[in-house]
Backbone:
């Protein structure tokens, strides 16, 4: 393929995006998504374990501040780098569009990972300040001799898939001095975003969002996504759903006006119930957003974890998909998943995203973390910061208890708050169960069948063989056993 | 007094039990049982659904007359309804068909005629191709001599085999086959339109890039005839086909590969592009018997129920390519142990089509004449047409 | 609204002592097994032996019992369950207990012919997608009108076959004579049938010998309901209902309506008096003098097929022609596939055409639809290749890549276990386009070069023509 000359200095003034893919020195397509660039083919890499200065940031700017199609490389470009070397890099993508607002930045930023991987000869791993990019010798030799080509490819891909991005410009920072300053700013942006995401509550917004992506598998299921409740699959936050709804109003995500709040603790809203009724064609009438018990939220089947009721201790246990083997109630994740999926409401069982456990409203109607009694070590570690300090040691893992009996002992020894509920339970149990005087149905008694009237055994049994026997009895009573007296 | 020794043990047991049953309890005194071998079987579990254990063959409770019972029809009410689509335009409507065919309009589930009357019968289209192709012998034998001439092929299908509609497939436009140009293909469409006066469905080759072009030209050639353009999907230039449909007065098939969400999305897109609801037919995919037909069954049932329950994105009549059945090896393989394929083949297509019909399909594409004949006869019966003197009460003795 | 059977509602009715007598580790797992129909209510022994649990036991039995009663036909190894349906539409859950297919045998036939027919019924077997498709029972018809002959024929069949039996006669005396033979009553044959004329004697006989009994009332659902209700009041529990099937004319319409109404009544309206499995007899297509055997078999076949999607739990057929039975058993297999479980094909190395060591090696998943589509596209376009089928738990490419079942480690294991390295000289693997994101990982683990193929299998030929160059093989 003839070499395409590309002088970075010329590109500074470039304002027309090269949307013609055939003009690129390297290929672009989804088939390159999994492409790996190994040491022998490595031209150079950016970021990675040994390089602390790296970031990738998308910012939404006012229209007039973005020069559509502009690509700039600030600092040394590819030809100046040493073959096989590792370098700092900052990527700044600035976009604008009449439908864009700052809340969509995270959604767009995630796309950078996929789009960059679609470029032949470019490998992209991680995000934000963990980003790591490799450039292949092959693509460099073919003519991809500037980071500007990566920028132009990103512009092409963004414009092709996201028409709401009306203007886009890309800047690569390879000058260490410039990166440091920009990195500090980027971190500020990430933190502000996260805080906003965490801070926003259901009360502050007018609309939640729905997701029906998995309705193919569960016809009566619809996910309601709020700032405090992520979709069960763990992929879609309220911000993502909002963005998706704006991009494709006829798609799987659409706004759900809250309506009236019937119960703020359980999370019951008239608007939500209406949508759930409509979308499930009447199969589901009502849902609580934050409870396992009263009309729990339905699931399709791709949830990341399950919260389940353990009656012996009146507590809630949690298990995630990666946990193999039986949980504290004897059932595995997949067995419980079978009961929880398909869009049914299963009292005492709730399919959920792992992120939901970080929510301030996490099963608040049932007591939140104070009600949680057991969870696998793996996710306990992962969610450490989300668990209130006082509770961390009180929640058992598979290393502390494997059965409900062991769990009960553990909770007693730790003085878990759930113990207070036991006193009430025991009171209820002491009430006598009224007898009805019904006879046991005859078919349940062991049947003595003389050899002549054999019925082939179903489900086991024994034979008693008497040889040369003499049985004497003063009295033998044969009584008809049924309810007729 | 029972002389025990003179009877079989099982008789003894039986007699004792009869007595016990009658009197409620019997007592035997000074019993001595001498045996060479006696086996007692203890069965802790008898299958729960079984009746009383054999030890207690108790008598039935005596009844002197039948209990009263009235059967009440379990009727449901459906808020929604499927749209009706007309295929073919008559002279007064701007076309040249002698009769138009209406499909869809369902108000109750398929053949749940006890709770309502669906206005239209399922309709049957027969496949015609614009070039000869390899077909199983069972089909081919009926079309010897006409496979070179689509017009003759179409004529034979209507006159001899009773096709309500012709499904004319322009497979030669496939770049991998003859790569016939859209204009030339449009000419053959005109030939077929002139040869028969039933409505027609026009199919492309399945090539995603070329089909919209071919269908556009075909639409033009069939201006005013209200044909069904088969098909568009989410990854074809559906807007082009919709434009042609609107310009020339046709309907469109929305095809999706067994994905209800995708079907809803495609329908939405087409309606948004300006296609009226009564110009849209859907094909959610018919899998052959033995090769996934159950997916199609449940898909169609779900779609029909959703439509009747009020989901506006699924209230369209359904097209079923029952001739997909011929893709199953059981339909065409010459294997002795499976019996003669001249029966096996059409039966395979018949069962596929019939199953789809019971699941809610309104319009069918069929290759074998026997399938059309049988299914049409079945529809007559299911619509209450015809007579019979079949007496089934004595079937036990009436079958030879 | 009646309570639904869920893990918690079931659990609440159990003793909750975690005693383990049922064989499960605790009551919760027993509840789960109960709902999955792996265990029955009576497996919880304390519940049924301890007086204090009486009320709960009854409530539990009621809660988990399927709205259409489950009945066991026959005894021993060949016993078959029918009924037990929970839903009207399979997409709402699944259909349990595939429709049993019984083949009729007339007592007018000679002994040798009877034995031949029974043998042919037993021998009928086809394997399809890893499952053995067979026939289930024998229905003996008292066509001769001679009770002695009928009894003889029944005894003959009972002796020579372990298949479940259905004894067909509207004369209860003939039924009794046949049933009360050693070797017959132990088999608990199903009795066909109790009608408005003979129900007293037929019902008593069934109760006496604990035989399932069919209530037959052609075309009259009120009478059918009355019959079933009365049989139940007499003490019969295993009842089957036959509303009559006409296979021609307008009565076919009402036959279909009756099937629909009966099933809906049992499941949606919870009518206990009609909560029984439904029988239909497509063999009626053979009624008449000298029917054309091919035409009758053809019609019977598609009628039987129609019944499979219209709620028949057991059918009686006459034809033993393989070509006529094949569509029926195939359709039955499909309809009774659990829609919650993906259908999978065998994994491993398959061949398309006659590949040699320079032929391409392609990769696909074991989801049946994917596999058949790919295989069919390859065959139709004349591609010759090796095809590796990966175990993705029956999920499609897209789903399994997203869900992780399609992963590089699995491909590595497949390459090893299939021994493909001895079949191909080269080390190039073509993977589906939707699995592009795994290309690097697969290369790392298998040490093969990965080529990312098209997303749609219909374009594989084109792709191979363009990118696969056999002459460049090492």
Residues:
């Amino acid at each position: 393929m003839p070499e395409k000359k590309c002088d970075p200095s010329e590109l500074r003034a470039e304002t027309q995006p090269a949307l013609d893919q055939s003009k690129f020195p390297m290929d672009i397509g989804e088939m390159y998504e999994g492409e790996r660039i190994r040491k022998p083919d490595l031209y150079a890499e950016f970021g990675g374990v040994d390089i602390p200065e790296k970031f990738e940031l998308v910012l939404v700017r006012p229209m007039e501040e973005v020069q559509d199609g502009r690509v700039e490389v600030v600092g040394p470009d590819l030809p100046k780098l040493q073959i096989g070397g590792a370098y700092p890099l900052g990527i700044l993508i600035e976009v604008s569009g009449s439908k864009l607002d700052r809340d969509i930045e995270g959604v767009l930023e995630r796309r950078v990972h996929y789009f960059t991987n679609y470029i032949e000869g470019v490998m992209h791993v991680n995000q934000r300040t963990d980003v790591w990019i490799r450039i292949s010798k092959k693509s460099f030799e073919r003519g991809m001799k500037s980071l500007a080509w990566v920028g132009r490819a990103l512009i092409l891909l963004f414009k092709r898939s996201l028409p709401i991005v009306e203007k886009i410009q890309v800047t690569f920072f390879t000058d260490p001095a410039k990166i440091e300053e920009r990195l500090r700013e980027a971190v500020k942006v990430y933190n502000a975003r996260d805080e906003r995401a965490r801070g926003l509550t259901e009360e502050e917004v007018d609309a939640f969002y729905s997701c029906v992506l998995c309705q193919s598998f569960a016809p009566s299921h619809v996910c309601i996504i709020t700032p405090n409740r992520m979709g069960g699959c763990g992929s879609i936050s309220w911000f993502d759903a909002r963005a998706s709804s704006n991009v494709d109003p006829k798609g799987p995500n659409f706004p759900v006006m809250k309506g009236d709040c019937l119960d703020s603790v359980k999370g019951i809203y008239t608007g939500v119930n209406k949508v759930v009724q409509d979308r499930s064609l009447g199969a589901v009438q009502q849902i609580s957003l934050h409870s396992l018990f009263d009309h729990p939220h339905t699931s399709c089947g791709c949830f990341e974890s399950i919260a389940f009721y353990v009656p012996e201790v009146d507590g809630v246990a949690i298990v995630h998909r990666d946990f193999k083997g039986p949980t504290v109630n004897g059932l595995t994740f997949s067995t419980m998943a079978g009961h929880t999926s398909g869009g049914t409401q299963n009292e005492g069982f709730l399919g959920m995203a792992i992120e939901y456990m970080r929510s301030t409203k996490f099963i608040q109607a049932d007591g939140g973390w104070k009600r949680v009694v057991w969870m696998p070590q793996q996710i306990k570690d992962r969610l450490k910061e989300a668990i209130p300090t006082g509770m961390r040691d009180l929640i058992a893992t598979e290393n502390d208890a494997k059965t409900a009996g062991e769990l009960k002992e553990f909770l007693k020894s730790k003085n878990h708050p759930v113990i207070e509920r036991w006193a009430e339970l025991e009171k209820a149990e002491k009430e006598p169960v009224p007898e009805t005087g019904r006879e046991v149905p005859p078919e349940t008694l062991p049947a003595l069948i003389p050899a002549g009237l054999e019925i082939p055994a179903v489900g086991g049994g024994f034979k008693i063989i008497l040889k040369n026997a003499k049985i004497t009895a003063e009295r033998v009573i044969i009584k008809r056993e049924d309810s007729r007296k | 007094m029972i002389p025990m020794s003179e009877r079989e043990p099982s008789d003894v047991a039986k007699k004792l039990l009869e007595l016990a049953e009658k009197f409620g309890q019997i007592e035997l005194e000074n019993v001595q049982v001498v045996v060479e071998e006696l086996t007692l079987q203890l069965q802790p579990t008898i299958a729960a659904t079984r009746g009383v254990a054999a030890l207690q063959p108790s008598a039935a409770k005596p009844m002197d007359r039948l209990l009263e019972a009235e059967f009440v029809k379990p009727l449901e009410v459906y808020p929604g309804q499927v749209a009706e689509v007309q295929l073919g335009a008559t002279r007064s409507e701007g076309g040249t068909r002698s009769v138009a065919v209406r499909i869809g309009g369902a108000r109750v589930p398929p053949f749940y005629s006890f709770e309502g009357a669906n206005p239209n019968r399922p309709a049957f289209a027969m496949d015609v191709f614009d070039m000869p192709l390899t077909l199983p012998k069972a089909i081919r034998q009926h079309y010897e001599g006409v496979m070179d001439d689509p017009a003759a092929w179409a004529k034979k299908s209507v006159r001899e085999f009773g096709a309500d509609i012709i499904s004319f497939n322009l497979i030669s436009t496939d770049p991998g086959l003859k790569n016939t140009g859209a204009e030339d293909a449009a000419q053959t469409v005109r030939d077929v339109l002139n040869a028969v006066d039933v409505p027609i469905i026009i199919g492309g080759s399945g090539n995603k890039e070329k089909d919209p072009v071919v269908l556009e030209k075909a639409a033009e050639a069939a201006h005013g005839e209200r044909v069904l353009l088969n098909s568009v999907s989410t990854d074809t230039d559906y807007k082009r086909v919709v434009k042609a449909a609107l310009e020339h007065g046709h309907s469109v098939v929305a095809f999706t590969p067994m994905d209800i969400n995708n079907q809803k999305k495609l329908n939405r897109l087409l309606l948004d592009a300006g296609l009226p609801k009564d110009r849209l037919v859907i094909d959610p995919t018919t899998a052959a018997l033995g090769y996934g037909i159950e997916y199609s069954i449940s898909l169609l049932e779900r779609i029909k129920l959703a439509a009747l329950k009020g989901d506006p994105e699924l209230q369209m009549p359904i097209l079923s390519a029952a001739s997909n059945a011929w893709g199953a090896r059981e339909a065409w393989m010459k294997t002795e142990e499976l019996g003669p394929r001249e029966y096996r083949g059409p039966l395979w297509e018949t069962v596929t089509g019939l199953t789809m019909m019971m699941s809610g399909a309104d319009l069918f594409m069929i290759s074998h004449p026997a399938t059309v004949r049988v299914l049409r006869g079945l529809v007559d019966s299911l619509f209450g047409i015809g007579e019979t003197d079949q007496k089934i009460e004595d079937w036990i003795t009436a079958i030879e | 609204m009646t309570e639904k059977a869920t893990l918690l509602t079931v659990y609440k009715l159990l003793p909750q002592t975690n005693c383990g007598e049922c064989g499960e580790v605790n009551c919760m797992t027993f509840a789960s097994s109960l709902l999955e129909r792996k265990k029955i209510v009576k497996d919880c022994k304390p519940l049924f032996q301890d007086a204090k649990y009486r009320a709960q036991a009854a409530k539990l039995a009621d809660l988990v019992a399927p709205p259409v009663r489950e009945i066991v036909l026959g005894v021993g190894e060949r016993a078959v369950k029918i009924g037990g349906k929970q839903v009207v539409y399979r997409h709402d859950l699944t259909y349990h207990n595939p429709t049993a297919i019984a083949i009729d045998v007339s007592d007018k036939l000679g002994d040798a012919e009877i034995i031949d027919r029974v043998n042919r019924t037993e021998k009928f077997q086809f394997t399809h997608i890893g499952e053995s498709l067979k026939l289930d029972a024998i229905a003996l018809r008292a066509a001769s009108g001679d009770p002695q002959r009928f009894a003889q024929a029944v005894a003959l069949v009972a002796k020579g076959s372990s298949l479940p039996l259905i004894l067909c006669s509207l004369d209860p005396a003939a039924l009794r004579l046949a049933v009360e033979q050693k070797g017959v009553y132990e088999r608990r044959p199903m009795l066909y049938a109790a009608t408005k004329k003979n129900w007293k004697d037929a019902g008593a006989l069934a109760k006496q010998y604990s035989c399932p009994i069919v209530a037959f009332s052609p075309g009259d659902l009120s009478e059918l309901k009355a019959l079933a209700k009365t049989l139940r009041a007499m003490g019969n529990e295993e009842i089957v209902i036959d509303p009559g099937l006409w296979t021609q004319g307008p009565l076919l319409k009402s036959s279909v309506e009756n099937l629909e109404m009966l099933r809906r009544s049992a499941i949606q309206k919870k009518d206990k008096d009609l909560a029984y499995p439904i029988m239909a007899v497509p063999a009626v297509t053979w009624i008449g003098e000298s029917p054309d055997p091919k035409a009758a078999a053809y019609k019977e076949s598609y009628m039987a097929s129609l019944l499979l999607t219209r709620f028949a739990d057991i059918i009686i057929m006459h034809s033993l022609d393989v070509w006529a039975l094949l569509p029926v058993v195939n359709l039955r297999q499909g309809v009774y596939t659990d829609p919650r479980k993906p259908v999978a094909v065998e994994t491993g190395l398959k061949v398309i055409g006659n590949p040699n060591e320079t032929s391409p090696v392609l990769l696909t998943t074991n989801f049946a639809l994917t596999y058949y589509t790919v295989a069919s596209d390859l065959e139709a376009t004349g591609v010759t290749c090796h095809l590796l089928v990966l175990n993705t738990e029956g999920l499609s490419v897209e789903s399994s890549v997203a869900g992780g079942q399609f992963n590089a480690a699995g491909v590595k294991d497949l390459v090893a276990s299939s021994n493909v390295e001895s079949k191909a000289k080269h080390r190039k693997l073509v993977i589906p386009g939707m699995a592009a994101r795994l290309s690097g990982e697969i290369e790392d683990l298998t040490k093969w070069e990965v080529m990312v193929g098209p997303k749609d299998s219909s374009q594989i030929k084109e792709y191979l023509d363009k990118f696969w160059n056999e002459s460049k093989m090492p």
